[in-house]
């Protein structure tokens, strides 16, 4: 199917553009379409790949019982009028690499993608998934010139889901009964808040000893690296796509869900001019509000350390971009 910006049918339906048709991007396209949330434009620089993936997904519509349009393209003009733009483009991690090792290459990719996408969808809300996520979100915010409520990064939803998974596995309980909150950067210095983690309202501090909780916290911090080491040829994509689809759903359906996302801070938590993961309410306008939790001295110090690492990488990225 060829997309036409003048099509009266397509223009009435919500549209989500996904920049980057790799494993995360293509799985996210599947999640959004099969949840019947929006039409999807899947964009990639590799000629033929997004078109082939889109056709494959279209051929499953009758089986999955949805009628969403899925368009594959190499042209940003085909993304026009998107309500949400998700940037997943960039190099993935390989064994032994940190998310920060991707900084130089991915900074240029994300900035270019953000500028191209905003030119065709000036009213869009942007969600950044590319690593190192907090830095890439800051660069996308700068590149688009949008207010902070319309640019965010997917991190805390994924990290919290990993923490919840490890708690559920440890206790042998239903994962849906476990709720957790992870703040800070999307990396080794993230801040899982153990005292906010519960099983059906019961704090895990009542169910697990301190040593076990610390072990689960460390596994959460290394959750992405654990998968990279096991797979050897790439990183996680199912859970990141699911985490991003939750954010897309909350925005498109105006659910006002309280979710931990990477956002630009203006004094909250004692931090300014930085992007880092904190709890936010997501609705049709993007980030409706930032919730400032009461943190212990130890938690606040850990968040400050996490933020300093992000700030150092933001400075590095800006130097790289300035050099061209």
Concise synopsis of the structure shown:
With 324 residues, the protein is an alpha/beta fold. It contains ten helices and 14 strands.
Number of helices: 10
Question: How many β-strand stretches?
Answer: 14
- The succession of helices and strands, N to C, reads EHEHHEEHEHEHEEEEEHHHEEEH
Mean pLDDT: 94
Q: How would you write the strand order of the largest sheet?
A: 3-2-1-4-5-6
Largest sheet: 6 strands, parallel
Cα-atom radius of gyration: 19 Å
Strand content: 15-25%
Helix content estimate: 40-55%
Poorly predicted spans? 1-11
Distance linking N and C termini:
38 Å
Structural class: alpha/beta
From the spread of the alpha carbons, the general shape counts as globular
Secondary-structure blueprint:
Elements: E1 15-19, H1 23-34, E2 39-43, H2 49-58, H3 61-64, E3 70-73, E4 84-87, H4 103-120, E5 125-128, H5 133-144, E6 151-153, H6 156-171, E7 178-179, E8 182-183, E9 191-192, E10 198-199, E11 202-203, H7 210-221, H8 223-231, H9 238-252, E12 257-266, E13 272-283, E14 286-290, H10 297-323
Parallel strand pairs: 1-2, 1-4, 2-3, 4-5, 5-6
Antiparallel strand pairs: 7-10, 8-9, 10-11, 12-13, 13-14
Helix pairs in contact: 1-9, 4-5, 4-10, 5-10, 6-7
